[in-house]
Amino acid sequence: MSINANNILIIGLGMIGSSIALACKSKGINVKGFDLDKSVYEDALKNNVIDESVEFFDNINSLEFVSDIDLIVIAVPPKQTLDVINKLDLIWNTETTITDTSSVKNHIKLANVNNIVLSHPIAGSDKSGLSAADLNLFNNKKNVICNPFNVDQMHLDRIESFWSGALNMKISYMSVSEHDLIFAMTSHLPHLVSYALIDSIRLSPIDVADNAGGGLKEFLRLSGSNPEMWRDIFTLNRVDLIKALAGMQVSLNNLLELITEAKEIPDVLSHLEILKDELNEIKSFKEDKF
């Protein structure tokens, strides 16, 4: 498949943006990069993460600048994503395709634009920043594309060929509402629970010291993710996150009743068998659905 994007600009050179840059450069795509932190784009240029740097954001929002840019990828925290899009208003409805990488979309509401497609590359790490760049971060991972603005087909084709061709990703399409609810359950809720669990341990009078088991270490990894990004996600997707959290609360209450044997248990079954069945049902649901 033709990548159909020979020159791209990445706004935001954190772990996601810089990983996209490395993958693109490996496919011979010319990569320009911008970051609010001057030292970041200078380091990116010095370490060959990007080919060229853009010094001032205002330079980007011009027809002259984007005349040779096929694609702009906005890789900043969710709240900043909308701010950046709004500040690029002079290049709306041009031949340059604009996309994002945010895991929440409902706040991005625009009218009369035909070149902005929303993307969510489902890959990440608890690490952040330019130093965490990973050339292979997106290989064989999934990318969800949302098209709430009914853009021109050319831009959809370019986005799909870019993610699949340049970054070796699998493509699927969702509406914004489907996307935000699904990822509230499968991504945002697990991170929220990890913060809650680690906080409960922090507040406990017991010092766990270095006695963390494998399960707790995974929660520690999740809770170590970029706090600015996750604060934005929890705030912007709070309605769907509340739905997901409410569903989990019901399940936790059911498990609590089983563990404390507060439920009336049939004589033919033991408490442990019921608990095992409930846990197996949860496990099979994950395996079947995801």
Derived structural class? alpha/beta
Strand order of the largest sheet: 3-2-1-4-5
* Biggest sheet features: 5 strands, parallel
CATH fold field value of the largest domain: Rossmann fold
Radius of gyration of CA atoms, rounded to a whole number: 22 Å
The CATH homologous superfamily of the largest domain is called: NAD(P)-binding Rossmann-like Domain
Q: H/E series, N to C?
A: EHEHEEHEEEHEHHHHH
Strand content: 5-15%
- N- and C-termini, Cα separation: 27 Å
Task: Tell me about this structure.
The protein is an alpha/beta fold and about 290 residues long. It folds into 2 domains: about 170 residues, NAD(P)-binding Rossmann-like Domain (Rossmann fold), CATH 3.40.50.720; about 110 residues, 6-phosphogluconate dehydrogenase C-terminal like domain (6-phosphogluconate dehydrogenase C-terminal fold). The chain is built from 9 helices and 8 strands. The strands form 2 sheets. A 5-stranded parallel beta sheet has the order 3-2-1-4-5, sandwiched between helices. A 3-stranded mixed beta sheet has the order 6-7-8, with helices on one face. Helix 5 packs across helix 6 and helix 5 packs across helix 8. The chain starts with 6 loop residues before the first strand and ends with a helix.
